[in-house]
Specification:
single chain; about 260 residues; alpha+beta; six-stranded mixed beta sheet; four-stranded antiparallel beta sheet; about 35% helix
Length: about 260
């Protein structure tokens, strides 16, 4: 499993979101000098031994800075204590990665998706899904026990990228009279699906598909299925591809017996 944070493969998405305090904030001169080199300062935090910590972003990566007590020098990197514990991890997660994860989750909520499962499900799982993706179909089948029990709702964020007719098929599902039923018929049939692509996609639907594809790229995914969920601590996590059994249980959570 690939975690969005800390220091995950999705750190590249950091550069797409504005730092919360970087604009217009006045920092000590030494920190301002670092900021002038393209570093985005997110926020300050307390650090030991007379140091002042700063959570920051640079080239799509989270980083920590430490201002010395005299205010004249800046140390860049992780701060370890005598036991070897990384004291930079907690403020970096709290100030950089956790807010980023919340922003990403909100963007997923606002994307164009087809729900598979109960609206009352305790867990929501998003996946970027191409109608021609065999691994998306595999995950659809893997998810059946959780979806059918009402424990999980899988939201298919439709994209068209794998085949020339992928966009047309994705559009057909989005505009179907009952998108969830159409999706399930398509996935149940697998390779035998009779889903017909729309030859002329309307500008509105095309815009929705393009927005989904852009979001997928911005979230660091390059292939389908790209699966996103919140773990037990409410942290956003990513998994690429149809998961193995151990990862599947982690993604989907407890299976309701009801």
């Amino acid at each position: 499993m690939i975690k969005i944070y800390p220091m995950s493969a999705l750190c590249c998405a950091l550069s797409l979101f504005p730092a919360s305090h970087a604009i217009g904030e006045q920092w000590p001169a030494a920190i301002e000098a670092v900021q002038s080199k393209g570093v985005q300062i997110v926020d300050a935090f307390d650090a030991p031994s007379g140091l002042q910590g700063y959570a920051a972003r640079f080239n799509g990566q989270g980083m920590t800075l430490y201002l010395t007590e005299d205010g004249e020098h800046v140390l860049v990197g992780n701060l370890l204590d005598a036991q070897g514990e990384n004291l930079s991890q907690e403020p970096l997660e709290r100030l950089v990665y956790e807010p980023l994860g919340k922003e990403m989750w909100q963007r997923l909520e606002q994307s164009s998706w087809i729900a598979d499962g109960s609206d009352d499900a305790a867990r929501i799982v998003y996946m970027f899904s191409d109608p021609n993706c065999p691994y998306c179909n595999m995950f659809w089948k893997q998810a059946r026990p959780w979806v059918e029990s009402g424990a999980v709702q899988v939201r298919h964020v439709m994209v068209g990228m794998l085949m020339p007719d992928s966009a047309g098929k994705a559009a057909a599902l989005l505009v179907a009279k009952d998108p969830e039923a159409a999706l399930n018929v398509h996935e149940e049939a697998g390779k035998a699906s009779q889903l017909k692509p729309i030859e002329r996609i309307s500008p509105t639907v095309n815009q929705r598909l393009e927005a989904n594809l852009t979001l997928m790229s911005e979230m660091g995914a390059s292939a389908t299925p790209a699966i996103y969920y919140l773990d037990d601590d409410g942290r956003l996590q990513q998994h690429q591809g149809a998961p193995r059994p151990d990862a599947l249980n982690e993604i989907m959570g407890p299976l309701s017996k009801g």
